[in-house]
Amino acid sequence: MDWAIHIDENGIALYAMFCGFNGGTDVAKFVMNRMVYEVFKDHPITKSMTVEEVKDALLRKFRTVDMRYFQTIDDDLTQRLVLMDDPETNADDISALNAKIRKGTTAFVVLRAEHDLYVLNCGTSLGLAFRGDRSVVRLNTRVHDNDDPEECERLRNLNVNPLVVHRPTRALGDYFRRDLFEENKELKKTTRKHDVAYCRVSSFHNRSLVAYTASFHFFPVVFSCTSLTGNFNRTPPLFDII
């Protein structure tokens, strides 16, 4: 895990963790900082908003964070496009640019507004809520990994062999997972489709939140709750996810 935050402001609490891959520590930091700005500064989410309004705002802000990151590598993508006119001569420069635009990060974001808890998951992190009686509630039903049966099925429905997709199977950043996936012969037939779902679970009391880290679609989940304490724990995961 590269970055983890807990911010409580004006009745809105944000817990989040970000884990970069392919050297993506700087991507994780950018996404973290931008997510904080989106939630608390740019048309901030407030506790007076309805559940649907918060869900819509979170998804919109998550997409904005993704867009803002890719704007930071626009020049690199343009330079790469020019160099690809003569890939053999420019092989070293193209390789350096490829390494830069392959950087990515997972994101696990939990937002508490009044008695509702919202979860955005993009990657292989696992969120757990601990009740006062020490029972555990899993906040996200899936991890985006090609060991996950439902994720494998999603990839097959996109005409992608799950075995050729590197973990995590969903991420922020890593341009090769987006508009350059056509360069991979195994992924040329891929079709893209947004995946949005949510559920509500009621009556959780006196619990703590723990996120374990083991990514471009959105999975929002809203839980009804009365109290929540944030505690990002850096101990090894309960589930051995690589």
TrEMBL record:
It holds the Pfam family PP2C. Gene3D superfamilies: PPM-type phosphatase domain (3.60.40.10). SUPFAM superfamilies: PP2C-like (SSF81606). This is PPM-type phosphatase domain-containing protein. InterPro entries: PPM-type-like_dom_sf, PPM-type_phosphatase-like_dom. Residues 1-242 form the PPM-type phosphatase domain.
